[in-house]
Amino acid sequence: MKSIIFFGLLAVACAAPQAPTEPIPILRQDSQINPDGSYQYAYETGNGIAAEEKGELKNIGAEEPALQVQGQFQYPSEEGGNIQLSYVANENGYQPQGAHLPTPPPIPAAIQRALDFLATAPPQPQS
Q1: 82-108 pLDDT, tens per residue?
Q2: Are 12 and 27 in contact (CB under 8 A)?
Q3: DSSP 8-state secondary structure symbol assigned to residue 83
Q4: Less CB within 10 Å around the terminal CB: N or C of the chain?
Q5: Interior/surface letters 17-56, b for 16+ CB within 10 angstroms, e for the rest
Q6: pLDDT in tens, 18-51
Q7: Which CB contacts under 8 angstroms, 24+ apart, belong to 12-16?
């Protein structure tokens, strides 16, 4: 029984995809961390992956400053194309942008008319 389990596991291990035998070269790598809390980094690899980001502390009128980050990255897709994403992250959250990201459906016309009406209506008194 143990030999059946052993050979079953051996067959699964042999059928699993193998990792590349050659290491992927780093074509470019830069980074800088400044005493004021700002930073930046960038890298690019031999298999088409690249990224860069910079961040700094921003005074938003709160007790503590907020971190403002901007960056982008790209990598090859399984279909042979290139996936690119740029982003901003700040006190308003993470805001990615990329052609591959899903988009919301359009607002139905009746709802849009109601929103337009409400935007132009005079304010109602509070009770």
Answers
A1: 999 999 999 889 999 988 888 888 999
A2: no
A3: E
A4: C
A5: eeeeeeeeeeeeeeeeeeeeeeebebbbeeeebbebbebb
A6: 666 789 999 999 999 999 989 999 999 999 999 9
A7: none
